[in-house]
Amino acid sequence: MYEPEMNTDLEELQEDECLQLLHQHHLGRIAVLVDGQPLIFPVNYGVSHRIVTFRTAHGTKLSYAPGSHVAFEIDEYAPSTRVGWSVLVQGLAVDATTALDDISWTARGATPHPVAPGVKIHRMAIRPTQITGRRFKLAADPG
Amino acid sequence: MYEPEMNTDLEELQEDECLQLLHQHHLGRIAVLVDGQPLIFPVNYGVSHRIVTFRTAHGTKLSYAPGSHVAFEIDEYAPSTRVGWSVLVQGLAVDATTALDDISWTARGATPHPVAPGVKIHRMAIRPTQITGRRFKLAADPG
Questions:
Q1: Cα A4 from Cα A68, distance rounded (Å)
Q2: Could you report the predicted ipTM of this complex, rounded to two decimals?
Q3: Residue A117, pLDDT score
Q4: Does A40 touch chain B if contact means CB atoms closer than 8 Å?
Q5: Which pTM value belongs to this model?
């Protein structure tokens, strides 16, 4: 059960706002479970409809993620505006490299551009179960 | 088993470099497992010796993390220098709010300053099992 923190100053974002933020950014982090231990990796991602997708080489993400629950997150805090937000995608990872299901087709409609070096010929996608977000704006610094 | 990606252009960082990067930054992300589903939350953290610590309110992190495996990650990519890196702390979460063990004492030696609003009276710490990092530097853009 997801138990929200007791906090009236955090505004919950609607899914359409979350998707808008996902479309506007390129770098996020994926959490994958490996033998009971969560790991987090930064990834450059793309988004097509509600499907977050990224490219990957052979390795931990490809070995452990497909068919498993994963989390994907983006966030930002801008000191100039004092606005912070985060978006969290929960779902099942899908190896969308060549699969013919709807999620994989949709995923291949996005074009993530990995910045990190390496040959990343595989395509991963997330079949979302929940897309949530939070935002806060701090009052002006009294100092 | 952690299976590194086939990639000769990513430099593995030594633990002391990882700790130096952890000391130089303040915003990271924690991955917590809730009923088999990983979740990721941004947190402002502090670090004392090898112990990453952050403050939290009553909620998901406090309910699910203590005693469980968690991941903590920081990363950066600077387009100006074309250098990117990430640091990953794997370990067990500890509720260090009032506990008297070594990890909790060490954790309370750091002073994380949460930017997000809310009363965060609890202190969480990570007893690290592995601290790893990777860095890459891209060649100048041929374009």
A1: 24
A2: 0.89
A3: 84
A4: yes
A5: 0.90
